[in-house]
Write a structure and sequence with these properties.
- By secondary structure, this protein is α/β, with parallel strands linked by helices.
- It has 3 domains: about 5-205, Rossmann fold (3-Layer(aba) Sandwich), CATH 3.40.50; about 215-300, Sandwich (Immunoglobulin-like); about 330-560, Rossmann fold.
- The strands form 7 sheets. The protein has a 7-stranded mixed β-sheet with strand order 3-2-4-8-1-10-9, sandwiched between helices.
- A hairpin with a 2-residue loop joins β14 (about 255) and β15.
- α6 (about 355-365) runs parallel beside α10 and α10 (about 505-515) crosses α11.
- The longest helix has 15 residues, at about 355-365.
Length: about 575
Amino acid sequence: MKTFTSFLLLVFCLSISAQENISDYLIKKGYGDKNTWAIIIANEDYQSYSEGYTENVELAIYQAERFQQMLIKQAGVPRENIIFYPDATNTHIKLAIAKLQKILSSNSKLIFYFRGKTFNSDARGELFLVPVDSDGEETFFMFGLEDLRKRLGNLKIASVDIFIDALPDKSSGTLCILDNGFVKSEGTSKYKNQFTYVVNPPVTKSDFVQLPVNAITQKAEIKVSTPDIKASQTYESTVLISGYIESVCPIEVVAVSGEEASYREDGTYTARVNLSNGENNISVEVRNCAGWSRINIIITKLSEPSESVSDKPEFDPNQIGESSLLKQAGKNIALLIGISKYKDGIMPDLFYPLRDAASIREVLISHYAFEPANVIFLRNPEKITIIGTLDSLSKVLKPEDSFLMFYAGHGSWDEKSRMGYWLPSDAAARIIDNWIMNSIITGFMSVIPAKHILVIADACFGGSIFRTRAFMPEEEKTITDLYGKSSRKAMTSGDMTEVPDESIFLKYFLQKLEENSENYISSEKLFFEVKPQVESIIDLIPQFGIIKNSGDEGGDYIFFRKEE
């Protein structure tokens, strides 16, 4: 095909509003059928690839996922035609283009989206996209805009639209093309009929917001995920409220107990509320274009049971060790993820992950200091739900809290890129778009403000979460020393191998937790009691170690047994 038509959208997110909805624009251009393809690059974690300090691009993956959802739900782009690369290197970008070169035809159309750092080279007079493994001002390993145009031009397909969702040499923050828009201007290109699109002058919000038919009469519907029921009791002084909101038009305000809550565009919200003794009537309020919606949650804070002087045991320093004096400072928060059902027909379903996650929840609540309202159980969640929940927790957890995360489901390892992945329920067997890179999980562990974090992964290739060698037991430390220092630890049911659906590791892990009679037990001690039992039965080597570059200071996660 001799004639090639390419369109370039060079979109810099500024404080502007869109004259034309981007999905409407794409539909008018003929995007959305089976011949439409997309490459989405979301570069957020630059720090992990840098020897010194470098600034990450916050919310890059989130904004890219919003763009992907717009393509699927509004523009009608087939999900299987979208290649999603989080934290892409220069090689990843080239491979994505090369991959499509083998399967695209002359009537194919391509959307290329980039969210991350950009660099304007005065010496070369060119804009460069910055991969995660390239920083500073060295352009050799960057991806030049002219190089990108050339590579996409060589595909010889019907049309190409390029969206660069970033500000040159600056952090884009929360500004993005979905919210801030674009306009067309004349541009020159060696490709016939190629145009450049730039940002639009400021207009008012009412100029571009389009509401669905009858939206004015449809108020938002509020769902509560935690606590599990709308009336509950607790001894805790605070409670975590979370859930999701269904609305046909944009959400303007989400408030819990009179304070603005953490709200994400996927509809999830999270807030921590202080409790007073007795009955607490907590309101969840949401305002959209149709007005306010409200629900109420009743939580009763129970008074700590008093102990008479005659009932108190006499303190004997010879009988009670140092660990018996340990007092937990913050709350225990847990996020349990069990994935048994997969939407992709090629992906085999699993029987045990949901059951295993439910078993952990029961043990934590029954035997250890976990309030039911503080244990979040995600059943067969999609990628956006997992990422959204972690993002919300990073905003509500406190520095004195302890956070436990458990994942059971499929895992994968890419030998070429040396990357490990967790596979949520919407993961496809042959397309990695909805896979969750280990670097995303470990990145969240570095920003969640909890003092102690423990990640337990019961999945194939779970050992890939470590960016360092396996942990070896050090000299014994007191429980007070371990609890006094921050920790970021992980344990996995295996190393770089496949693990069975019915987890031997989890069986003995739960057994040890249930049988433990000590007031406190560290995750290290627990692991090294479980590990030999697993290895004696099955050819697996469970792993325990530090999550590198995430803030570990030599402490450990402590399981506090519930007081009888």
